[in-house]
């Protein structure tokens, strides 16, 4: 996986622009504070469906397919399934780094 992406994700957390966990992300998105959703590949099907609907409804990009351990490791946690970024500039940089890895 893209090391720079995960390093920048950690930086996003340190900057206070990252929301962690199902309930907090759901609340942020319902109040229009989310700019990017990141789902782990181990997330439950219902969780993925719910956040995909929120992504489409709020026109927010969605990244998925990363293991929950990899996401948690770069944030100093054992694992995490749902993340939400609430800063447009950080979102643009994360998407740029993610897309570099795909190409």
UniProtKB/TrEMBL annotation:
<feature type="domain" description="Ribosomal protein eL8/eL30/eS12/Gadd45">
    <location>
        <begin position="7"/>
        <end position="85"/>
    </location>
</feature>
<protein>
    <submittedName>
        <fullName>50S ribosomal protein L7ae-like protein</fullName>
    </submittedName>
</protein>
<dbReference type="Pfam" id="PF01248">
    <property type="entry name" value="Ribosomal_L7Ae"/>
</dbReference>
<keyword id="KW-0687">Ribonucleoprotein</keyword>
<dbReference type="InterPro" id="IPR029064">
    <property type="entry name" value="Ribosomal_eL30-like_sf"/>
</dbReference>
<keyword id="KW-0689">Ribosomal protein</keyword>
<dbReference type="InterPro" id="IPR004038">
    <property type="entry name" value="Ribosomal_eL8/eL30/eS12/Gad45"/>
</dbReference>
<dbReference type="GO" id="GO:0005840">
    <property type="term" value="C:ribosome"/>
</dbReference>
């Amino acid at each position: 996986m893209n090391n720079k992406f995960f390093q920048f994700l950690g930086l996003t957390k340190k900057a206070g622009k990252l929301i962690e966990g199902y309930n907090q992300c759901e609340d942020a998105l319902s109040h229009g504070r989310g700019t990017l959703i990141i789902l782990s590949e181990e997330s439950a099907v219902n969780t993925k469906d719910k956040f995909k609907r929120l992504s489409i409804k709020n026109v927010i990009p969605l990244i998925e397919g990363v293991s929950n351990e990899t996401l948690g490791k770069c944030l100093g946690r054992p694992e995490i399934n749902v993340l939400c970024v609430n800063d447009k500039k950080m979102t643009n940089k994360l998407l740029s780094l993610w897309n570099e890895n795909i190409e």
